[in-house]
């Protein structure tokens, strides 16, 4: 079997009312997703998504893959890393290759990745900044829907409001639900050069969150501040999480060596790719730390992260981007025939279908010629 072509198609859906992402000052009025299709001379095709694949087609990067055996994935990963060095993070291509591999093997990718688990409890990852009353109501609803955990974003520059929202959520759900908090301090919108909040401010926030029994504190400082993170970890008594956009395994190994993080979150379609994330996850788990990737892209990216996490036995929870009415499965997974949903027990289940189990909606299948 040979790769006969790589198709990249961009799609977008309107968001009315807009989604007010905590990490973006501009309300989002549309949401884009880029589908990557790997075609073969035998008619089988694989689908991936996640990163926007900017510059891939314009640079003619298909030429490094067309004519090659699609199942030589470790070879393709090395080539994608050379492209990443010059241009973007083209990990959705690797996801499409694994989707194809699973279809050839007639197995879900999670099985190819080790098959440790077939399902994992989801945490509702809330994306908007909401006041205490609204966040408490949302926490109660999530608990009623079966979620065992949720994540709340705090703007560290208005920490008191954020902490009040976490306190209200804790008060509303009691200790029957885990609560994580994300400060997004290793994350920047393009063009935003404001410095991160200083470590002492973060120590103060962390102390308050410890009292509220927060399960982990995410991105309290930039990832490059490994010493600051290690110190905060010792002082705060909280698990620290991060690494969602880490560019290389070495960046994350530096954190592991410095004992800077307790929870490692490389997104398999944005950060290290699937194979590298899996290898790194084994190291993390053997060091008795947690591996549970970021998944905030779209339904296809969520599925890719689900397969890797279940395959390698990560957890204990997986991110499920969900903060209705602003962020819903219908918006997130607009390209899928049916959105990915959490079962009534609060679990995400690995699809039974071969590959990633991506079932695109009819109009997207038509555009891709599937
Ligand atoms: Mg995050």
Automatic annotation (TrEMBL):
Residues 132-239 form the Mandelate racemase/muconate lactonizing enzyme C-terminal domain. Keywords: Magnesium, Metal-binding. Transmembrane segments: none annotated. InterPro entries: Enolase-like_C_sf, Enolase-like_N, Enolase_C-like, Mandelate_racemase_C, Mandelate_racemase_N_dom, RHMD-like. SUPFAM superfamilies: Enolase C-terminal domain-like, Enolase N-terminal domain-like. It comes from the Bacteria. GO terms for biological process: carbohydrate catabolic process. One of its GO terms (molecular function) is magnesium ion binding. Its cofactor is Mg(2+). PANTHER family: ENOLASE SUPERFAMILY, MANDELATE RACEMASE (PTHR13794), MITOCHONDRIAL ENOLASE SUPERFAMILY MEMBER 1 (PTHR13794:SF58). This is L-alanine-DL-glutamate epimerase and related enzymes of enolase superfamily. It comes from Rubrobacter radiotolerans.
């Amino acid at each position: 079997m040979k790769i006969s072509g790589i198709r990249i198609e961009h799609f977008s859906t309107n968001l009315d009312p807009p989604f007010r992402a905590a990490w973006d000052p501009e309300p989002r009025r549309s949401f884009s997703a880029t589908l990557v299709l790997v075609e073969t001379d035998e008619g089988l095709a694989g689908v991936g998504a996640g990163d926007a694949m900017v510059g891939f087609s314009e640079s003619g990067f298909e030429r490094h893959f067309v004519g090659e055996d699609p199942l030589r994935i470790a070879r393709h990963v090395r080539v994608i890393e050379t492209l990443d060095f010059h241009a973007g993070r083209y990990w959705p291509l690797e996801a499409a290759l694994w989707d194809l591999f699973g279809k050839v093997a007639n197995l879900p990718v999670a099985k190819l990745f080790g098959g440790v688990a077939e399902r994992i409890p989801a945490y509702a990852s809330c994306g908007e900044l909401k006041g205490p009353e609204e966040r408490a109501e949302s926490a109660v609803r999530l608990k009623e829907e079966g979620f065992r955990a949720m994540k709340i974003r705090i703007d560290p520059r208005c920490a008191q409001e954020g902490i009040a929202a976490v306190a209200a959520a804790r008060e509303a759900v009691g200790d029957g639900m885990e609560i994580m908090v994300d400060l997004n301090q290793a994350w920047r919108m393009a063009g935003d050069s404001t410095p991160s909040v200083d470590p002492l401010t973060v120590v103060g926030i962390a102390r308050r969150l410890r009292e509220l029994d927060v399960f982990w504190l995410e991105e309290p400082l930039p990832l490059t501040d490994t010493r600051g993170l290690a110190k905060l970890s010792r002082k705060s008594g909280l698990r620290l999480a991060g690494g969602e956009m880490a560019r290389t395994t070495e960046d994350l190994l530096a954190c592991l060596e410095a004992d800077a993080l307790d929870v490692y979150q490389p997104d398999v379609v944005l950060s290290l790719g699937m194979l590298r994330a899996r290898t790194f996850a084994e190291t993390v788990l053997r060091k008795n730390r947690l591996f549970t990737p970021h998944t905030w892209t779209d339904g296809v990216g969520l599925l890719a992260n689900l397969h890797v996490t279940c395959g390698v036995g990560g957890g204990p929870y997986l991110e499920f981007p969900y903060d209705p009415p602003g962020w819903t499965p219908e918006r997130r997974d607009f390209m899928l025939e049916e959105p990915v949903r959490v079962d009534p027990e609060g679990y995400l289940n690995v699809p039974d279908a071969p590959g990633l189990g991506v079932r695109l909606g009819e109009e997207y299948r038509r555009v891709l010629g599937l």
